[in-house]
Design brief:
Strand content: under 5%
Distance between the termini: 38 Å
Largest sheet: 2 strands, antiparallel
Number of strands: 2
Shape: globular
CATH architecture: Up-down Bundle
Length: 144
């Protein structure tokens, strides 16, 4: 039970930070969206990278029972003004994919496909969600 409680806690935190980020991105003016972060990326590019990670993570959870890694679907960059919506939609997709897991089989160690560049071919769902949460929290802390 402890494992499931921890997983639910990570999902709740992820939902909260993604809701805030999506809202913040939707309200940023163009000058802020195109402004650079200390690492050189624009805020829009950093937000799109997070949205792409969320989308790939959702696909990894959805396709977890496949015998081989899925054909990863990239998230197109549609410009700086849609990044907030992309974060909102892909974040919702990830959380919905996690919620669809049967409670008796869902745990932090449930094997899912890890998106390219995250780790290895498979990882535990808890590890994946923690990685995504960390990326979202880091971006949230640097957004302004």
């Amino acid at each position: 039970m402890q494992d499931l409680d921890t997983l639910e806690s990570v999902c709740e935190r992820l939902d909260s930070v993604l809701t805030r980020l999506a809202s913040a991105y939707r309200s940023l003016p163009e000058s802020k969206l195109l402004g650079r972060l200390p690492d050189g990326r624009t805020r829009a590019a950093a937000g799109h990278e997070l949205a792409a990670l969320l989308g790939l993570a959702a696909q990894g959870v959805e396709d977890r029972s496949r015998p081989s890694a899925p054909s990863w679907r990239p998230l197109p960059y549609e410009g700086p003004f849609v990044v907030g919506d992309q974060i909102g939609v892909t974040g919702h997709d990830l959380l919905a994919a996690c919620a669809r897991l049967a409670p008796e089989t869902a745990s932090a160690s449930t094997a899912v496909w890890a998106p390219p560049g995250v780790r290895c071919d498979r990882t535990g769902m808890g590890t994946l969600l923690t990685r995504v949460l960390t990326a979202a929290e880091e971006l949230s802390g640097r957004l302004y």
